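ARCHIVE CARD
Drawer: 12
Card no.: 0347
Subject: one protein chain, sequence and derived structure
Cross-reference: see card 0346
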Amino acid sequence: MENFIFHNPVKLVFGKGCIAQIPELLPSVQTIMLVYGGGSIKRNGVYDQVLAALKGRNLVEFAGIEPNPRYETSMKAVLLARQRKVDFILGVGGGSVLDAVKFIAAAVPFTGKDPWDILAKGAEVKAAVPIGAVLTLPATGSEMNTNSVISRVETSEKLHFSSPLVYPVFSILDPETSVSLPVRQTVNGIVDSFVHVMEQYMTKDLNTPLQDRYCEAIISTLVEESPKVLYTPSDYDVRANIMWCATNALNGWCSCGCLQDWATHMIGHELTAFYGIDHAQSLAIVLPELWRAKIDSKRQKLVQFGRRVFAVSSAEEAIFKTEEFFHSIGMKTKLSDYGIQPADASKKIYERFMGRGDVALGEGGDINAAAARDILLRC
């Protein structure tokens, strides 16, 4: 096991009706910016619950955050927040809204030339507006981590940043808010959570049995609960289990003392940037073929995973069972399923990575632009 430091300051409130606890959780602030997406929170009653909890507060609203949050849209919120002297931002929605909120929070006090530098150049985040979260779509774990991924339409890029200054002060998770989600979004969240765990688990073995079993517990729970949520979407207990899995998949606990991969995400981000497919769709496409390409270095973990989760005995069977699981919940796993030519995707992403001076992805740093191209050709 490698040395590690673990710190997660997020106050997480979980359960039915907990949106009403917002007044008790808010720090002393003057002006709150309420940020949300396309309006589903107004149809499912979450918006009304949040407004009731914020009654009497000075509010500024910003709507329209996209499923892959855009830099261009987020910067409009940054300008509004600066104009209105916002000193707290409350994101209500899924991971995309929360990712946007984190970027907005970091960009408002940013004193550099261009806030895009936070994403493109790794500019230091020296200050951030405090944020809170009301989660409605379990997927990214953004409610309990420091990560944010933002797309820029102008340049067809999708980049990320992380800073401890954008940990939410609090996050509210009421599984009832996810009951009205469309099937596509529910499935996307399951796949996203699944791959988050795998990026921290499916690497070289470092004798981390507790972390391994923690990861396997999350994956096993997702595999067991996923069919239930498709057949009984209004089942509170099933929704609660999936929501809690998504949070635990990326709140830092899985990766303590472990190697991490994240190559599937880095390649997948480029597929989304170029072709606009859903984030989870890109992950489901890349993961199986990346595993096949790196099967020798990942064999020990693949065999362990296959045996403990799917009751199979080989690395090859473990990969097949993963694809089978994705297919069982309606997630397709080939570029052609989304009208994308592997040759086109591999060329574009090879050139993108080479344009950045090549890359060194994966836990071993051995997935470069050429390796990524070859993986995509197999997708």
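Annotation on reverse: The chain has two domains: 11-177, 182-377. The first strand starts at residue 11 and ends at 14.
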